[in-house]
Amino acid sequence: MKLPALVALAAASALVSFAPASAQTATRLRLQCTADGATDHSISARFEQRSARKKFDASFEAAPNIGFSAGQFLSVAVAGVTVGSMRLVRDAASGDIVGDLEFDTRVDEGNPFPANFPKVSSGTNVRVGPLACSLR
Fold first, then answer.
1. According to the CATH classification, is domain 28-134 in 2.60.40?
2. What is the DSSP string of 14-75?
3. Is residue 122 a contact partner of residue 31, using CB atoms and an 8 Å limit?
4. Is the pTM of this model over 0.85?
5. FRET pair for 6, CA 20 to 30 Å: which of 23, 70, 80, 89?
């Protein structure tokens, strides 16, 4: 009775060893960072890559009346390369001034990555307006 179980285990092992190389080496990279300003404002950034899919998000948030206003644009740079800008809006619930910029290789889910978007790795610098942080 132990022989059928051993044969089944050997067959399952063979299936695993013949899986495509891409399935065995699929990698996921997730990096993020935050920074706080001297006054009540902050940024956060996130980069994620799994196989061919990439996503990037940078956001900004500031308390009202500290020098940022709805309609203002902030530049977003990654590794020193300007990749876009975000338009600030007033959050109706809190009154905060907020902005967001997103890129996604799945175009139907958001903005496509710009052609000049640089290679990202741990330590890559992201700057949103006056604040910067390093992805980790």
1. yes
2. HHHHTS-HHHHS--EEEEEEEEE-SSSEEEEEEEEEETTEEEEEEEEEE-TTSS--TT-EEE
3. yes
4. no
5. 23
Residue 23: name the closest of 50, 41, 4, 47 by CA: 50
Buried b (16+ CB within 10 A) or exposed e, 58-91: bbbbbeeeeebeeebebebbbbeeebbebebeee
CB 72 within 8 A of CB 19: no
Two tokens at 9?
């285990």
DSSP state of 118: P
Beta-sheet strand order (sheet of 53-62): 28-36, 41-50, 53-62, 97-104, 89-90
